[in-house]
Every structure is written in C-alpha cells, then in structure tokens.
Amino acid sequence: MRRNVRGDERRLHLLQLKIPTIGDTRRDVLISSLVSWFDLNARELPWRAVEDPYAVWVSEIMLQQTQVSTVIDYFERWMQTFPDVDSLACAELDDVLALWQGLGYYRRARYLHRGAKMVVDEFDGRLPGTGKELKRIPGIGPYTAGAIASIAFDEPEPIVDGNVIRVLSRLFALDVQPKERAHQKVIWALAEELVPDSRPGDFNQSLMELGATVCTPQNPNCLVCPVQSHCEGFATGEPTRFPRVARRGKVRKASAHAAIIIDPQGMVLVEQRPASGLLAGLWQFPSVDDGELDDLRDKLAVIGFEASDQEAIGEVSHRFSHIDMTITIWRFEVATTGVVNLESTMQWVSWEGLGEIAVSAAMRKVEEVARAHIG
Ligand code: SF4
Questions:
Q1: What is the strand order of the sheet 268-272 is part of?
Q2: Residue whose CB lies within 8 A of the most ligand 1 atoms, among 174, 214, 242, for a mutation test
Q3: Edge to edge, what strands does the sheet with 305-319 contain?
Q4: Does the C-beta of 139 come closer than 6 Å to ligand 1?
Q5: Closest atom of ligand 1 relative to the 231 alpha carbon
Q6: Cβ–Cβ contacts within 10 Å for residue 255, how many?
Q7: How far apart are CA 71 and CA 68, in angstroms?
Q8: H helices of the chain, where?
Q9: Mean pLDDT, 10 residues at a time, the chain of 375 residues
Q10: Is residue 231 within 6 Å of ligand 1 at its C-beta?
Q11: How many CA atoms lie within 13 A of 126 on its CB side?
C-alpha cells in the first residue's frame, strides 16, 4: 500500500483535475489483477526476452506507429546489425536508414542514430535510468522515457500510449477526447497514480497488452478481462463510448510524377530528398511531389536533360499520414543539351544497387512498376 506525501499531493492534483481519486484498495486490486494477468498472458516478443535498456529503446521507437507483427523482423535485424549503442553511434546514417526501409516515419531512425551519438558522448555509452535524463535524448519523449525507465530500470514512471488511454478511459468511464491536451493531462495523472513501486515495468506493459489484445477499440472482450468487475465503462453497458473518438484530420490529395531515366549502360538516375521534411534524406527516382508533368520536365532540363519523349508506364498510390499521393510513372527518352550537370544529390545506380540505398515505401512501388515495364 502506498501512502506518502508525494501520493497525497498527487491525489490533490487529481481532485483539481476533476477526475476520480482511486482508493488504495481498488488501486491494489487493479494492479495485482493486471500484473497477474500479464504474467500468464504476455505475448512472447523478442524484446521481452532481453533485459537491455538499449533493446527496450529500439523496440519502443519501432513500435510507435507500427504494428507488433511488422516490428518483430525489423527489430531482430536491427539488433544483429547494431547490437549496442556504440555500434549504432558509429554507423553511417545511410546504413541506418537502409535498415529502417519499409518501416516508415524515418524520422524515428534518424533520432535513434542521433540519440546513440549523444548517449556515447554524454552518458559514457550507457542509457541513463531516470525519465528526466532520458528525455534529454533526441527522439525520447515522455512515453519512451517512461517505458525505458520502468521496463529496464524498474523506476515507477508512468507511460501513456493509445492503448493505455483506451484502457484507463474505460476503466474510469472518462468521457475524454484523447487529442486534447487537458485530457491527456488527466490520463497521465491517472497513470502516474496507478504505477506501482514494485514491478512498474510489468504493470505498464500489462495496461498496454490489455489494450492491444483484450480491450481493443471496436470489440473489447470484456468477458475475459481481468479487471471487468472494476471497470466503470463495462458497467455502463457501452464501454466503446470511452474514450471519445477523435475526428480525423483532413487528408490532402497530391499528384506526384516520377521519372525513370536509364543511361546507355543500364544505370538508373536517382536523387536524394532534402534533409528535412517528408521522407527526408531518402532516395527516389527524380520526382515532383505535387504538380504537373511539365514541372518534372523543367526539373530535368535544369540539369541538362531535354526530355524529348515520355511514356506513362503506370501509376501507384501511397498514403502518408495526411497526404494521399498518386504517383504517375514516366519512362523518359532524354537527350542531353550539352553538359549533364547532375546535382550533388543525384547519382546513377544499377538496378541491383537500388536495393542497397534507403528508398521510401512509395518509391519501392514505383520501382516495381518500372522493373515490370523494362522486363
Ligand atoms: Fe476494457 Fe471491457 Fe476490460 Fe473494461 S472490462 S477494461 S472495457 S475489456
């Protein structure tokens, strides 16, 4: 049972936030029910088999915005290639991005790389154990800091992700809109109130695991839920009312054009995207993200290629977080207007070499169409 000054301050804080305080008995029952359930039902996942703060860090970053089933292979490959902070810090960014290829949201890989350099430079190559210090590392926000501190260092730090928001909203019948800051504060305060001093990492993982496997968004399996008898959302008869579903942000449509240009030796022209913004630093066939075919022709003319003829060889669609992009793929016959002045961000690569550079998932689709066309 936890009763101390810090706990009393937190309860006062919860009252100020107008959310229900949790009695000690209910809190203890919730914690023990969830941790016991987790002991019996936790999925076997590769990052759970190792007690390594670095592995927890890598897995938590990969799991942001990506499903567990997809992450498993990536995690195993990553740990074979970069088994520790030092090996990641010494790696070339291009190699890091190439290994991340297909996971999307490449900023996460860039942050891991930068973070590893900082851990080597400022923490002697060892991840620090407190949430406060962890949050100084690039790409580690409150969620990841809480996950590393609680799972790898047994610190009673809370964590809140989409699964935790759903489970806590239902357990306490909180009619919250999770995207709103004030409501996020409420959920964080509740998670902090609940996280125990003993086995905080397992408790945090039990909440996330329950959200991922039992208390799912559309069809919570309340009949097998270990905390059903303490769940206010279940008691209302409509647990899926909690939390309130956020309205989706507007998705913008974009028409992109990509050029397939092959030199007499069979090499294909690629360019690197700018260092910031969408798909920063990744390689692609020369493209315009949103515009007309003429914009692409102009772009090629600037480097000395005059597009004399082009043929549309296919079209692919790709959904980024807020952009629905349709990419028309053009096979260009080009003549040089004199000196070909490739920009420093462009290069010729072989088709085999394309597999070794970091290319976005959208461009892999373009590559497939181009390969099928060329035969
Ligand atoms: Fe979720 Fe149902 Fe369990 Fe409540 S009883 S936490 S709604 S699965």
A1: 283-284, 268-272, 346-349
A2: 214
A3: 287-288, 252-260, 323-336, 305-319
A4: no
A5: 4
A6: 15
A7: 5
A8: 5-16, 24-41, 53-63, 68-81, 85-90, 93-100, 107-122, 131-134, 142-147, 153, 162-171, 181-194, 200-213, 232-235, 293-302, 361-374
A9: 50 57 84 97 93 95 90 96 97 89 84 96 95 94 95 96 94 84 85 95 97 94 94 90 78 92 88 80 89 82 76 91 90 68 79 87 91 86
A10: yes
A11: 6
Query: Are 286 and 261 spatial neighbours (Cβ–Cβ below 8 Å)?
Result: yes
Q: Would you say 1 and 28 are in contact if contact means Cβ atoms under 8 Å apart?
A: yes
Atom 2 of ligand 1, nearest CA residue: 222
CB of 170 sitting under 6 A from ligand 1: yes
| Nearest one of 288, 290, 289 to 298, comparing CA atoms | 288
Regarding the beta carbon of 173 and ligand 1, being less than 6 Å apart is answered no
CA-closest residue to ligand 1 atom 1: 215
d(CA 360, CA 100): 10
Under 8 Å CB-to-CB from 321, ≥6 apart: which residues? none
Nearest-Å Rg of the Cα atoms of the chain is: 25
- Distance from C-alpha of 92 to C-alpha of 98, rounded to nearest angstrom: 10
* Residue 77 zone, left/alpha/beta (φ > 0; ψ -120 to 50; rest): alpha
Q: Check residue 256 and give its pLDDT.
A: 94
| Short-list 163, 188, 168, CA closest to 231 | 168
CB of 171 shorter than 6 A to ligand 1: yes
Question: Active site includes 192?
Answer: no
Q: How far is the CA of 195 from the centre of ligand 1 (A)?
A: 18
* Residue owning the nearest CA to atom 5 of ligand 1: 228
Say which residue the tokens 């919570």 belong to.
Answer: 220
DSSP conformational letter for 64: T
